[in-house]
Amino acid sequence: MRIIISTFIYVLFALSAIGQQQKPLTVKISTPTVQCEKCKKRIEDYMKIEEGVLKTVVDFKQKRTTVTYLLDRTNIENIKTAIANCGYDAEDIKAAEDIYAKLPTCCKKPIDQ
């Protein structure tokens, strides 16, 4: 009888934990300094290690990055900062200068080449 009760309690806790998970949120971020396929790969690879980010798709022709993330693990500001730390502007957050300087020539803004 004790095993049945403890199993029942365990199932209730498991179901309540499943019900508390939030759905992922998808946002589109303007990344105006993304120039080429190398930029796309660099951002997508960098965002794989960011906590809470599930998926990142960079469209360098439209200069837009679509990010799907878990709201309880990160937020939009952290994502923009991560993109800036990768060397690219993300809406109102400018790229980190030291990292931008290390980007390949094809990944820099046309005025800086």
Structure keywords:
alpha+beta, 40% helix, Alpha-Beta Plaits, elongated, 4 helices, 113 residues, 3-stranded antiparallel sheet
Give an account of the 3D structure.
This protein has a single domain, classed as Alpha-Beta Plaits, CATH 3.30.70. The chain has four helices and three strands; from the N terminus they run H-E-H-E-E-H-H. The chain has helices at 2-20, 37-47, 76-85, 97-101, and strands spanning 25-30, 53-59, 64-69. The radius of gyration is 20 Å and the shape is elongated. The mean pLDDT is 87.
What is the topology?
Blueprint: H1 2-20, E1 25-30, H2 37-47, E2 53-59, E3 64-69, H3 76-85, H4 97-101
Antiparallel strand pairs: 1-3, 2-3
- The tally of strands reads 3
pLDDT < 50 stretches: none
What is the total number of structural domains? 1
**What is the CATH T-level topology?**
Alpha-Beta Plaits
Task: Supply the number of helical segments.
Answer: 4
Sheet with most strands? 3 strands, antiparallel
User: In CATH's first tier, which class applies?
Assistant: Alpha Beta
Query: Average pLDDT across residues?
Result: 87
Tell me the Rg in angstroms: 20 Å
What overall geometry do the principal axes of the alpha carbons give?
elongated
C-alpha termini separation: 75 Å
Residues in helix, %: 25-40%
Strand percent estimate: 15-25%
Strand order of the largest sheet: 1-3-2
CATH architecture heading: 2-Layer Sandwich
